[in-house]
Amino acid sequence: MNQPPVHHNAPPGLRAWLDSVDASREPSVRDVTIDGVRCIIKRRRPSFGRGVAYALRYARAFLLGVCCKLFLGEFPRPGVLLRNGLTHEAERLAMLRQAGCRVPEVWWQEQGLLVLEYVGEDLADLIRNEDSTSQLWLTRAAATDMAAFHARGMWHGGAQIRNITLRDGELWRIDFEENIGSTLSRPLTQAYDLFQMLASLVSLRKLPDDVALTLGKLALDVYLECNPDPEVRARLTRLARLLCGVATPLRPLLRRLPSRDIQGFFRAADILQPLLLKL
Questions:
Q1: Residue 48: what pLDDT?
Q2: Strand ranges (DSSP E) for 118-264?
Q3: How many CB atoms lie within 10 A of CB 209?
């Protein structure tokens, strides 16, 4: 993150293209090329029963908040968590771009619509399809980049490996709709960022167990070496204690299930478990 990010220019025919399509038939996310320029178009539409849906989301966020308070010591306020979406993402992108972070430019914004600069292929696809040498390089780069991002006091909120991209040899970050960092402490939010990256990395399809564990352990070691923040490590250790405590009784029952998410959960617990031995 030492070099200023180099952005592309918006396509001159963007507004005309937006006016030419039937918005009601457009998907929530579309990768499209306009006048030879690739961009990402995100849409959110009001849903029927919006009040009921919000109440259900609030109840879910409240229950998750209670669990977070019980096991991790902090209560994320549901009302803040639910102030997310495209407007929030545009605001965060503007703030991060002003700080010199590698995030996409907003090329167009209106109610329920956000057009973003395309900033490369996501690391999830790249790691799945590259050779072992490239997998190791990409994993190390992702962990180093997150450590530098966090060392500046930043947080992502949606730090899954699919939300890190590669363009022209530089890593970029995308998808900033989540608002968790506005209601949790910086150390816990950053520890959660790291957990999201690790869990999503070891859950990637096509990765054998040994490769997934190798990449996950590498990412954790590199991050902690580059960002030895004791507060982040303390929150991550507490999170590891929770994960390992849940994984131990469930492993005999669920270890043979082919679910990518379940196996990824056990892999993430295995990767974080050594933190408990260093207390």
A1: 58
A2: 121-122, 164-167, 170-173
A3: 12
Distance CA 235, CA 230 (A): 9
8-state DSSP, 114: E
What's the token pair of residue 183?
Answer: 């209601």
* Other CB atoms within 10 A of residue 264 CB: 20
| Contact between residue 264 and residue 247 where contact means Cβ atoms under 8 Å apart | no
Buried b (16+ CB within 10 A) or exposed e, 69-84: eeebeeebebebbeeb
Residue 266 neighbours by CB under 8 Å, 6+ apart: 247, 251, 254, 255
Give per-residue pLDDT as tens, 49-79: 567 788 888 999 999 899 999 999 999 999 9
Q: Using one digit for the tens of pLDDT, what is the confidence trace for 110-155?
A: 999 999 999 999 999 999 999 999 999 999 999 999 999 999 999 9
Cβ-proximal residues to 21 (8 Å cutoff; 6+ apart), any chain: none
Q: Please name which of 44, 51, 54 lies closest in space to residue 110, comparing C-alpha atoms.
A: 44
Q: Are 267 and 235 in contact (CB under 8 A)?
A: no
Query: Strands across the sheet with 164-167, in order?
Result: 121-122, 164-167, 170-173
Question: Does pTM surpass 0.90?
Answer: yes
